[in-house]
Amino acid sequence: MLAEIDLMIRGAVIGISVLTFAILASNARTRRKSLSLGAISLALAGEMTRASGIGPVWSPDAIDPAVLLSHFMPLALTWFVLDLFLEPPERREAGRVFYPFASVLVMMCFEPFQAPKVQVPLTLLLFIGLAYVVMRSAQDDLVENRRSFRVVFILMIMLFGITKTITGTLFTPETQPVWLPTSFAATILAFEIVFGYWALRPGGSLWSSDETPRPRTTPEATDLVDTHLLAQIDSAMEHELWRREGLTIGEMADELRVPEHRLRNAINRDLGYRNFPAFVNGYRIAAAKAALAAPENAQKTILEIAYDVGFASLGPFNKAFRAMTGTSPRDYRRSALDDTSIPA
């Protein structure tokens, strides 16, 4: 009886993941970001096929490809998490650390690199690292659907990932309880159902493509626009609230005397920004460009200009400036002033 239940659960895991991917891939708005979900679907199919319970019903020729696909799960999971929760600048920065780390874990799944005593703690470290990145980015996330979902996601990835890693050290495939693989498959199935609900529900933006700020919607265009709050936002920015170092959305909400969730909604829905730093940095970088191009600021250092526009240090300023302009502050200044003697 357990074997039949196990087989149905594993088949449902494969079927639901493929179906969710197919639905998201068929929509132009979500197609690009659905690719990481496709990678997860392939790795899951391999994992569900190779594990005990479903394995015996497949021909031996099908097991080897399944094992190969399952080896890429660390890399697929990393891609999925960074693609889902982070915006492009943060994604690129985090990827410089996590993608090489996950690639090493993938290599360790193959002979002759297998080293379980090393692989297990490294896998656990990957789960903890991804969970940390997801939570760290929560405060600045303006996409309410995604912001709410990350709490569910963190609980699932921590509970499942850490439990599976620990049990992997306690049992071998031959000594593990017969119900253990089935329980893991059931947990994955439950998570897929939750994810499918959040990703596919009408009006949801959990899995929408990266958006750029869009032109201001006029009040005549829609009754949903919070015109009064947008006027407050405009006024605050005209009075250079963005120059405040370390400005958070909570502080801005306090300044405007509005609920934080209402401010988040206005900046995301009405202005098209998906995270708060991108919104604030738009003003800061515009001011920095004007300052760097002004001859009267020729003797000001780039660090001084970074401080003037609200950045706490040079590193974040350089990253934000390059992300928005495609060049460094120094090169932008030299190009604007046509003078290579300008101080850094």
Secondary-structure element sequence? HHHHHHHHHHHHHHH
- Note the gap between the termini: 73 Å
As a percent range, the share of helical residues equals 55-70%
- The overall strand count is 0
Describe what is shown at a glance.
The protein has 344 residues and is mostly helical.
Any overview of this molecule?
With 344 residues, this protein is mainly α. 67% of the residues lie in helices and 0% in strands. Helix 4 packs parallel to helix 6, helix 6 runs antiparallel to helix 7 and helix 12 packs parallel to helix 15. The chain is elongated and about 80 Å long. About 2% of the residues have low confidence.
Write out key terms for the chains shown.
elongated; single chain; 15 helices; mainly alpha; 344 residues
Outline the secondary-structure elements.
Layout (H helix, E strand, L loop, with lengths): L1 H24 L8 H17 L9 H11 L2 H13 L2 H20 L8 H21 L7 H27 L9 H21 L26 H12 L10 H8 L3 H11 L5 H18 L8 H7 L5 H12 L3 H9 L7
Helix pairs in contact: 1-2, 1-8, 2-3, 2-4, 4-5, 4-6, 5-6, 6-7, 7-8, 12-14, 12-15
